[in-house]
Amino acid sequence: MGEKQYQLQPLPYDYKALAPVISEDLLRLHHDKHHAAYVNGANAILQKFEKARKEGTDLDLKAITKEYSFHFGGLFLHERFWQNMGPTGKSGGKPGGRIGDAIEKEFGSFERFKKEFSAVASSVEGSGWAALVFCGHIERPQLVQIEKHNVNVTPQQKVLLVLDVWEHAYYLDYKNDRGKFIENWWNVVNWDAVEKRLP
Ligand code: MN
What we know:
Elements: H1 24-55, H2 61-83, H3 97-107, H4 110-122, E1 128-135, E2 140-147, E3 158-164, H5 171-174, H6 178-185, H7 191-197
Antiparallel strand pairs: 1-2, 1-3
Helix pairs in contact: 1-2
């Protein structure tokens, strides 16, 4: 032991900061319970590997690597999600600068991007994410729909902006109205943070 473990990254703002788009109660539950569970899950897998290697026992490697991808995906996407949001009243709106230009160039307009990204989010079957990624091969932003935390992930495409549409992300505040959550969520997007991710 003594090796590095995964850590639960604290929120970059107060638990009340995103209200009323995301209430304090929901943010606490989402960060302190759901996000934390993926961090703990990933660390538990590291321990299983360490134990089995030490004892020379076999693992179900197909199952454990799948589980690792799920938990690591969960912890990574939640980190990005918290980072790409900012306090109500100081966030949202139409982005300018390099990110605004990159979006307009790829999607034609910000409105068109918003419409496509929202549709990616609303059409997730069950649990998943909408993501704006940057594909280095073509140096262009692209949309991705991630199922769970790890299915349809495009390796090496840099994650610029994500929206969590698992039920746990909105149910407490919006019940089953995912569409309303998505609509309101645009008001807490931190475009400065998104732009910083743009290569
Ligand atoms: Mn979540």
